[in-house]
Each structure stands twice: as C-alpha cells, then as structure tokens.
Amino acid sequence: MTHIPPPEHEIEPPVRYALPPAVNFSIVGTFIIALCAALYYARSFFLPLVLAILITMTFAPAVRALAHRGIPYAVSAVMLVVVLGGAIATTSTLLTGPVSQMIAETPVLVEKIRDRFDFLREPFRKLNEASRQVQALTSGNTDQPGEPERVVVQQESGLLGWAAGTAADFGTTFFATMILALFLLASGTTLRSKLIRVLPDLSGKKRSLRVLRDIENEVSRYLLTIAAINAGLGLCIGLVMAILGLPNPLLWGIAGGLLNFIPYLGSLVGNLLATAVAIVTFPSLAEAALVPVSYLALQIIEGNFVTPFIVGRRLELNIVAILIFLSLTTWMWGIVGAIIGVPLLVVVKVFADNFPAIAPLAEFLSGETRTAEEADMEHAATPPGS
Predict the structure, then answer these.
(1) 3 state SS for the chain
(2) What pTM did the predictor assign?
C-alpha cells in the first residue's frame, strides 16, 4: 500500500518552545564558567593551541599570497615558522643573562632603594618610638628596652626557582606552539574548506567563506601592525635608556615592546621597574627622574599619536572590557595570557562585528562612545532583516 503524504498546507510546523530569560541566562552563565575552568585547568593544552591559532591568523594571508606565486603552502609555512621561532629563540637567549642578573640582584636593589629614601622614613620612625614610649609608660614597664627590630632576609632561591620553572614551561609551550602553527599554516585552505562544507546551503557557504576571509585579513593586518608599532617603541625605549646610561638597555627595549601589548598596566609596570633601577644607578634623584619622564613621553607619543594614526579607531576597545579580559587571561595563563589578552579580545571583536547574532557583544567591546539617541537613530535607519 502506497503512503500518500498530506498536502503541503496540511503539514504542521514543528513546535518550538521558548525558554524563560532566566533559564537562558543560567545556561549561558554555566557554560562560560565551565569554559573558563577548562581553559584554566587544561592550560597546558589550550595555551599552545590558542597561540598557534593567533600565529596562523596573523600569517595565513602571507602564506596564501606566496601560494598564488607558486610557492607551496608547506614550504612557506616552514619558512615563516623557522624565521619566527628563530627570532623568539634569539630574543629569549639575549634576555636570559640580564633577567637572571636582575633577579639575583633584586634583594640588593630593594635595599638600595630603601636606603635612598630612608629620610622619608625618619618621621614615621620617631612617631613609632614615641608610641612605644607611651605604651611603656602606661604599662608601667620603663626599664625594659623596646623589642628589637627583626630583619628578614629573603632567599634568592625562591625567585631563581620561579624563574627556572617559568623558563621550562615557556620552552614546552613554545615548542608545542611552533609545531601546531606549522601544521595549521601548511594545511592552507583545507581546514577552512572542511568547516564550510558542513553548512547546508550554497549561499551560506559563500557568505561564511567571505566573512572568514575578511576576519582573517583584518586580524592579520591589526596584529602585524601592533607588533610593528610595539617593536618600534621597544627600539626607541632601548635607545633612550642607552643614551641616559641605564644598565641593560637591550632588556628595557624588549621588555618595553612586550609590555606594551598590555594596555595601561604594562606601561605602568615597565616605567616603575625602570625608575627603580634608575634610582639606585644614578647619584642624584634629578638624574634618575629623566628615565621615567623619557619613558612616559615615548608612551604618550605612541598611545596618542602613532597607534591611532596607523591603526585607526575602528578596533578601539572598551577599557572596562580590556581590564576584565586581561584579568581573566592573566589568571588562566599567567604572563603569556596578559600579553596575548588584547590580541585575543580584538579577534573576538572582529568576529562579533561580522556575525549579527552576537552584535551586542561587539557593541559592548567597542570603545566608541555613542549616545542613546544616536544608537536609536542607527537602529531605525537599518532595514529590517539586514
């Protein structure tokens, strides 16, 4: 017996149930908490993967351009990974000596800074002595001297042990990242094609391919530009520190460029460290003050003139979102997480800009300030369904 399907107008549409907003919020919140916990506890796996994806998104347009010129993906991927890995390894080797020396001399540095500003402690010392005498008079015990000050000497082994452990973790992460980035770059468009192939209709495939290509190009252009700007800033910082006579100008240049990936906090940390070394290096505080003033001047020029002029305002981020995301990535992945936090946030912002479903996230991450009237006018001018 042949089954005759009912007419099309008699087919009942599937019933869709809408969950209450509180349930949706709970589901999303639980997912975010579980994701953060997985990223933290499995950081040995996720950190090299995230770094490899960032490297792939940065250099994929260059690999694709070389492929159009007849160079295979595998060859260009090997060349880029070797050059990048060699640059990172060389930089790490150059920093090993100065960083180890600075860590070993940290107790001496702290003691010298304490002696330099000893005159500021004199009023507090007198106040403490007067308080001790008053306490002795009220307790009726005037013969016994006050309790002697205890001097606690920090062991250098703690800092050196932490540095050794950090270097070992960095070496493992670096090796895994380079291997993953090599295979991701060598795969060319294969992985992206497999992701597009699962979409049902042709128009969706074309749109997704175009969006992914635009995202890749925009992220690559931004990351390469920011890396070049920070490298230039690091070079200027190193030259200025060498002119001023600060020890290890190479260390300050590289540290200044890397710390500039961390907005606000990175510049503050770099300036404070350079100021501390300048205080114990130069004979007078007036000479030492030239270091933080010069450091701050270079940061102001870079942050207010160079970067806005080259990068533009489109990818400007909300400072609240930056601080929240930096706190999260630093908690999950330490120093490396702090450095790559803002590049990751830019990737999220670019994705959100290109997908209407998560447009509110892009609006929250954006650093552009718009009034409610402007937002309503823009929403009213947008055609329905666009």
Answers:
(1) CCCCCCCHHHCCCCCCCCCCHHHHHHHHHHHHHHHHHHHHHCHHHHHHHHHHHHHHHHHHHHHHHHHHCCCCHHHHHHHHHHHHHHHHHHHHHHHHHHHHHHHHCHHHHHHHHHHHCHHHHHHHHHHHHHHHHHHHHHHCCCCCCCCCCCCCCCCHHHHHHHHHHHHHHHHHHHHHHHHHHHHHHHCCCHHHHHHHHCCCCHHHHHHHHHHHHHHHHHHHHHHHHHHHHHHHHHHHHHHHHHHHCCCCHHHHHHHHHHHCCCCCHHHHHHHHHHHHHHHHHCCCHHHHHHHHHHHHHHHHHHHHHHHHHHHCCCCCECHHHHHHHHHHHHHHHHHHHHHHHHHHHHHHHHHHHHCHHHHHHHHHHECCCCCHHHHHHHHHHCCCCC
(2) 0.73
